[in-house]
TrEMBL record:
Domain Mur ligase C-terminal: 314-427
Assigned protein family: Belongs to the MurCDEF family.
A GO molecular function held by the record: UDP-N-acetylmuramoylalanine-D-glutamate ligase activity
Phylogenetic classification of the source organism: Bacteria, Bacillati, Actinomycetota, Actinomycetes, Kitasatosporales
Protein name: UDP-N-acetylmuramoylalanine--D-glutamate ligase
Main function: Cell wall formation. Catalyzes the addition of glutamate to the nucleotide precursor UDP-N-acetylmuramoyl-L-alanine (UMA).
Natural source organism: Streptomyces evansiae
Location(s) in or outside the cell: Cytoplasm
EC numbers, comma separated: 6.3.2.9
Pathway participation: Cell wall biogenesis; peptidoglycan biosynthesis
Database matches in NCBIfam families: murD (TIGR01087)
Binding, ATP: G114, T115, N116, G117, K118, G119, T120
């Protein structure tokens, strides 16, 4: 689509919407941004866009998109939004920000999707590219806007995108050169049926050709089921053990990360060389993507060894009186919390979890054998009762304390923990009943620990 003089309606003025407005306005489009929230909410965003001729419809019903050339839907905009229905009636195309990026980027794309582990895998891929001299621009679902990445991108560079289900809903021509699928587990059940969620995640492969490449976790049966007939080169990954002999990929065996290609095997690095907790599955997926791009083994190993983790993802905060505190505030579903607990094979865990369930989460997923390493469970928020019942009903009766609020939960965890324990904040759901986003709750936890 030719952006110059095009009439574009942006739905939602969060990070995604602001970035989309900037991208379209810079290319000469007539941009209108709508958000149902009041104008005072967006003082900073409007100031950042002030140099561009952007119109606003804030705190009012959405304008009719019938006379627009394009609607760009931000990830938080529900499918039932009236402007989307009207756009469909008027046959106005609706794009996600990822589709917009596809049409505007000058360089190839590596895209990472899945239920959990997208952000860490994306960061590792970019680090591995950088380690061998490739300029990689990281953006997408992790809160990094597309506009600055696309502004800096050159044809010889690579755009590495973390892609959520919401961002895949309105893709049409999007065709990454390499697609990475970390895992697919039930998520966002308030928005999607399992069949719909599965179909949306599979759409990342929709336009693959023989020139495309795919990385998929063999450890996840649902994910690997997506690639049975996908064209192009394919590498499997496993953090749990060797791959079947017939499959090429990156896997773990006897404490080593190994690569199998074209009948040969070689070692990349030792598992003990990894500094960050809980990143083994991410490292093997990122390494496979880098190998498909031609990155050398030395650069891959160097980046993996150097990786120190992401803020709010199994982030080490401090050690106090022999007790280690970890911030996993980004864990917004039970599977992510279970993954975090799995990262502590070497010490008992005092787990802080709970909040407000906005996604119809299946808390029975927490009733797994690995949860037995939780020495004490501290629950808070609206979901405390639901989490406790799910564990009890599924035969897992952990020592549990239900607290009044998050501050009390953190103080209780500190009081109940012993030297050698890990106090882990991994909510397993949203905490919108206490904070607006995972960044805020992560910062609050660190303040409570360090204060």
């Amino acid at each position: 689509m030719q952006m110059k003089h095009a009439r574009v309606l942006i739905l939602g003025l969060g990070i995604s919407g602001e970035s989309a407005a900037l991208l379209c306005a810079e290319r000469g489009a007539h941009v209108t941004v709508h958000d149902q929230r009041e104008a005072g909410t967006f003082t900073d965003a409007r100031a950042r866009l002030s140099a561009r001729p952007v119109a606003y419809q804030l705190g009012v019903p959405a304008p009719d998109p019938a006379d627009c050339h394009l609607v760009v839907r931000s990830p938080g905009i529900p499918a039932r939004h009236p402007a989307l229905s009207r756009a469909a009636e008027a046959q106005v195309p609706v794009w996600s920000e990822i589709e917009l990026a596809h049409h505007l980027t000058p360089c190839p794309v590596v895209a990472v999707t899945g239920t959990n582990g997208k952000g860490t895998t994306t960061a590792l891929i970019a680090d591995m590219f950088h380690a061998c001299g490739i300029t990689a621009h990281r953006a997408g679902n992790m809160g990094i806007p597309l506009a600055p990445a696309l502004a800096a991108a050159k044809p010889a560079d690579v755009l590495v995108l973390e892609v959520s289900a919401a961002q895949l809903e309105n893709v049409h021509a999007f065709a990454p050169s390499v697609a990475v699928i970390t895992n697919i587990q039930p998520e966002h059940r308030n928005l999607y049926s399992w069949q719909t969620y599965h179909r949306i995640k599979a759409s990342i492969l929709r336009r693959h050709t023989d020139a495309s490449a795919t990385v998929v976790s063999y450890d996840d049966p649902t994910a690997r089921g997506l690639v049975t007939a996908v064209p192009g080169r394919l590498l499997y990954t496993s953090a749990l053990g060797p791959l079947p002999a017939r499959l090429d990929g990156v896997y773990v065996e006897d404490g080593r990360i190994l690569v199998r290609e074209d009948g040969g095997e070689r070692e990349l690095l030792g598992v003990a060389d990894l500094w960050a907790r809980g990143v083994l599955a991410n490292v093997v997926s990122a390494a496979a993507a880098a190998i498909l791009w031609g990155v050398g083994d030395r650069a891959i190993a160097e980046a993996a060894r150097a990786y120190r983790g992401k803020e709010h993802v199994l982030e080490f905060v401090a050690e106090r009186a022999g007790i280690a505190f970890y911030n996993d505030a980004k864990a917004t579903n039970p599977y992510s919390t279970l993954h975090a607990v799995n990262a502590f094979e070497d010490r008992p865990v005092v787990l802080i979890a709970g909040g407000k369930d906005t996604k119809d989460a299946d808390f029975t997923a927490l009733a797994a054998p690995a949860m037995r390493r939780v020495r004490h469970l501290i629950l808070f928020g609206e979901t405390a009762g639901a989490i406790h019942r799910a564990l009890i009903d599924n035969g897992l009766d952990l020592p549990t304390t239900v607290t009044e609020d998050f501050t009390d939960a953190t103080a209780t965890a500190r009081a109940l923990s012993r030297p050698g324990d890990a106090v882990l904040f991994s909510p397993g759901t949203h905490t919108w009943d206490m904070t607006p986003d995972f960044l805020t709750r992560g910062v609050l936890f660190k303040q409570l620990v360090l204060g």
